[in-house]
Amino acid sequence: MRTGTTQVPYSARGWIHKTGNDGFIKVIEDAERSVLVGATSAGPYGGEVLSALQVAVRAEVPVATLRNMPYAYPTFYRAIEDALAKLSEVRSS
To answer: CB under 8 Å to 22, separation ≥6 — which residues?
Structure first.
């Protein structure tokens, strides 16, 4: 498994939103199959962002496809790109 997390305030829309922009987006990838198997989103419009990620998980959309999607600018959805770019291996203890 690999996870990627980004903070909403660091996204373009988070910066524009200013006050009340606290939140994050986290994605979880099955590294062997290269598909998302989980995600969460908290913050402004977190439910809407999560619904897009839910479709990707349910449909087993390849991570490569998600990385190459055009995300509207400036939107909170755009932070999904940052979370995907930060996917890294999770080490078990």
So the answer is: 8, 9, 43
**pLDDT reading at 93 higher than 50:** no
Query: Residue 9: how many CA atoms within 13 Å on its side-chain side?
Result: 6
How many residues can be counted in the chain?
A: 93
Which residue(s) pair with 25 in the sheet?
A: 6, 41
25, 5 in Cβ contact below 8 A? yes
Burial class of residue 46, CB neighbours in 10 A (0-12, 13-18, 19+): middle
pLDDT digits (tens, 9 = 90+) for 42-61: 988 888 889 989 999 999 99
3-state secondary structure of 79: helix
Is residue 50 classed as helix, strand or coil in its secondary structure? Answer: helix
